[in-house]
Design brief:
- It is a single chain.
- This protein is mainly alpha-helical and 213 residues long.
- The chain folds into three domains: 51 residues; 52 residues, Arc Repressor Mutant, subunit A (Orthogonal Bundle); 73 residues.
- It has nine helices and four strands; from the N terminus they run ααααααββαααββ.
- The strands form two sheets. A two-stranded antiparallel sheet has the order 1-2. It has a two-stranded antiparallel sheet with strand order 3-4.
- Helix 5 crosses helix 6.
- The radius of gyration is 35 Å and the shape is rod-shaped.
- It starts with a helix and ends in a 7-residue tail after the last strand.
- InterPro entries: Transposase-MT_Hybrid.
- This is Histone-lysine N-methyltransferase SETMAR-like protein.
Length: 213
Amino acid sequence: MATSNDLLIKQRSFIEFLAAEGCSAANIYARMKTFYGEMCISDCAVLKWVRIFKGEDPRETILRDQKHSGRLLSASVTAHREKVDCMIRANRRVKQKEIANAAGISKERVHHIVTTVLGYRKVSARWVPRQLTVDMKAQRKDMCTLRAFNCFHSCMNICSKTSLSGQKLDNRALFYEKVIGCRHCLINMATPSHVAHHCIMSTNEVTQTYCSS
């Protein structure tokens, strides 16, 4: 079965033959429309090829479309990618506007390089790799466990000295049950006083504790 490109070549050959006989573009289009129907090229395309064939030697005419170089990727060359990557690795909180000013390219191109070419995404205002390896995931899990453990003991030390109507928080299981938010497995270090303030919110009631990521 002939492809769409083969069909175009056939129609251009048909135009070349009729143009050599002196037929007008309108007449050629009418005859082609009758034969090819909906698959016929437009009348503007017929007129363009008639002008090409009448002004060139048939032995030098090329019916196939020539390859085009396309648009130059001036802002996504290796130099820009490496520079953007180095800036992000040096400062995970760097803004796209700052990268654009430093690299001398538009903010839109910076966004394309960061998200599509380099594959970064933003988590808690930090640029992090889109894909994490098994070792990286295990390392983050261990870090979160250690920080949660330290946070619990710091909270216990303060809660043992702080009491509202005799209410004390001294149960580890209760503490972990009250931690309901832990986005992206990232727990930032919090001061003991801040944790205690959220652990004891009202008299005779231990409320939900939020560990923000």
